[in-house]
Amino acid sequence: MKILVTGGAGFIGTNFIRMILLNHPEHEIINLDKLTYAGNAENLLDLSDNPNYRFYVGDICQPDHVEPAIVGVDAVVHFAAESHVDRSIQDAAPFVVTNIFGTQLLLDFAREAKVSRFIYISSDQVGGSLLPGIYLRENSPVSPNNPYAASKAAAEHLVFVSYNIHQFPATIARLSSCYGPYQFPEKLIPLVIANTLEFKPLPVYGDGLHIRDWVYVEDACRAIYQILLKGKPGQIYNVGAHSEKTNLEIIKRILKLLDRPEKLITFISDRLGHDRRYGVDSGKIERELAWRSQIDFEEGLRRTIDWYLRNIEWLADTRSSSYREYYDSVYSSRFTVEPTKPEF
Ligand code: NAD
Ligand code: TYD
Q1: Is 16 domain-assigned?
Q2: C-alpha of residue 13 to centroid of ligand 1, in Å
Q3: pTM score, two decimals?
Q4: Cα distance between residue 95 and residue 84, in whole Å
Q5: Domain count, the chain
Q6: What is the 3-state secondary structure (H, E, C) of 19-40?
Q7: Is residue 83 part of a domain?
Q8: Domain, as residue range, for 42
Q9: Closest ligand by atom to 200 CA
Q10: Ligand 2 in contact with 205 (CB < 6 A)?
Q11: Which of 16, 54, 126, 298 is the most exposed place for a label (fewest CB within 10 A)?
């Protein structure tokens, strides 16, 4: 298959492309990525000579960038997005543009190019906050609570409309929280690893008891691949790992694995509209596509930490001056108590 991957220089897209190029040489990949702050061309530099790989720097919102990239492709796997909730609360507009308008434009071009598979990568955040014991199913109502989640939900609707009106063969992979190598350190796990390594305070929003279902990125990429091969058009497949954790549990495990003191934990004011719990029911993909997560949280976290320790320069490069500006804008006014200082 010739596969157009959008957003392939970001966290999950990078892992997906690496998996395909290294394990499935029968496929060709075209990566279309705008290289926003979250995209890093270096992630795939070692594969740039692979004859099955081509990289276009381009914006999914620009017809003249999408058109040449989509010619002759069999399938689209659409990851490209603005992906960070805190940024969406600061400024929702880029989320509406890329995640909604960009997805519609891509759907239009893909339909015109007669691609036979289109996988939209969505998020469990579309379902909003769930009470304990309640799981988001593929047919549950959506109820997003932040601009990022709302933009992902809007795009889901557009994908369905395209299927319903035009019988366009689109399928939705709805992922729970992913973690692993190459994740930008604005997200909880890499941010905590990076700060821990530098003995910096670890900012915990609210009481730290918010829950997500954490899936290791390699498992998520295997699920996306199964959906690409065998998923039915017009369907959603939830992808979770039966691995619900509170943020505090995660932070404490990272501290333990890196042998650092818990006094780095610093409670700060809560995120606006902070969803208490996400949890997906992954029964459908397990039953219908025989996918199940294979890497448990302990093992996944160990692998993740190990990757960041082996890629300290990657981490340093991502934490550039614009990252510091972003970090100050989100965190500086929220540290209500003196940050704890380590005794070393
Ligand atoms: P990311 O922020 O790490 O990467 C996004 C990539 O998209 C970057 O390389 C960026 O340069 C690119 N991009 C942004 N705007 C673009 C545009 N207009 N045109 C072309 N490229 C553009 O995101 P991620 O964590 O890898 O997430 C990938 C997808 O998976 C997103 O759609 C996200 O909503 C979804 N998702 C992520 C998670 C998670 O836990 N990370 C969970 C569920 C769903
Ligand atoms: P995040 O990694 O931003 O992903 P999402 O909002 O998509 O779930 O956040 C994961 C959880 O961690 C979420 O409950 C917010 C919380 N969090 C913190 O407590 N401190 C932080 O510095 C960050 C980035 C997140």
Answers
A1: yes
A2: 7
A3: 0.97
A4: 9
A5: 1
A6: HHHHHCCCCEEEEEECCCCCCC
A7: yes
A8: 2-180+217-239
A9: 2
A10: yes
A11: 298
User: Is there a domain that residue 208 lies in?
Assistant: no
Of residues 242, 240, 107, 102, the one with CA closest to residue 171: 107
| Interval 30-86: pLDDT, tens | 999 999 999 999 999 999 999 999 999 999 999 999 999 999 999 999 999 999 999
Determine if ligand 2 sits within 6 Å of the CB of residue 85. Answer: yes
Ligand nearest, relative to CA of residue 250: 2
The ligand whose atoms approach the alpha carbon of 177 most closely is 1
**Residue 147: which residues within 8 A CB-CB, separation 6 or more?**
88, 89, 92, 95, 96
CA–centroid distance, 241 to ligand 1, in Å, is 20
Give the domain CATH number at 123.
Answer: 3.40.50.720
What is residue 245's three-state secondary structure?
strand
pLDDT tens digits, one per residue of 319-334: 989 999 999 999 999 9
CA of 308 to the centre of ligand 2 (A): 18
Mean pLDDT score of the chain: 96
Residue to mutate, 5, 6, 12, ligand 1, most ligand atoms under 8 Å from C-beta: 12
